[in-house]
Amino acid sequence: MPRKPDPDRMPHPGRTSAERKALDAIGCGEPPRCSPKTIKALLDAGLIVDVGTETRRDALGAYKIPKFAMPIPVHMAWCSAVAATDEEMAAVEAELEASA
């Protein structure tokens, strides 16, 4: 069940939708799927850091993708902002129990 965003608890105030999606992906350890302009804005703001590249392989061979991370204080703030409230978790747990 997707959670509706709470306007009083925006995880990334002042960021564009693309920047928010990129931050969410990076915060979860995934590569962001966004434009170089979005990455540059997040790097310039100090919200992410470039940590090199990751080599992956597929049927066509090896390829490299850029890798980014959040500085620890930014990651802690991001985790806090996207964490579910006690009421939200209680609702999820009740839904899980009801479906079992």
What this model shows, in words?
By secondary structure, the chain is an alpha+beta fold. It has helices spanning 17-27, 36-44, 72-82, 86-99; strands at residues 49-58, 61-69. The longest helix has 14 residues, at 86-99. The two termini are 16 Å apart.
Compute the CA-based radius of gyration: 17 Å
Described by the principal axes of the CA atoms, the overall outline is extended
| Largest sheet descriptor | 2 strands, antiparallel
Q: What fraction of the residues are assigned to beta strands by DSSP?
A: 15-25%
Measure the end-to-end span: 16 Å
Stretches with pLDDT under 50, minimum 5 residues? none
Structural class: alpha+beta
Task: Write down the secondary-structure element order.
Answer: HHEEHH
How is the largest sheet built, in terms of strand order?
1-2
Helix content: 40-55%
What's the β-strand tally? 2
Contiguous helical run count: 4
The mean pLDDT is: 84
Q: What are its keywords?
A:
alpha+beta, 4 helices, two-stranded antiparallel sheet, 100 residues
Give a concise summary.
The chain is α+β, with helices and mostly antiparallel strands and about 100 residues long. The chain has helices at about 15-25, 35-45, 70-80, 85-100; strands at about 50-60, 60-70. The protein is about 45% helix and about 20% strand.
Q: Which helices and strands occur, and which strands form pairs?
A:
Layout: H1 17-27, H2 36-44, E1 49-58, E2 61-69, H3 72-82, H4 86-99
Antiparallel strand pairs: 1-2
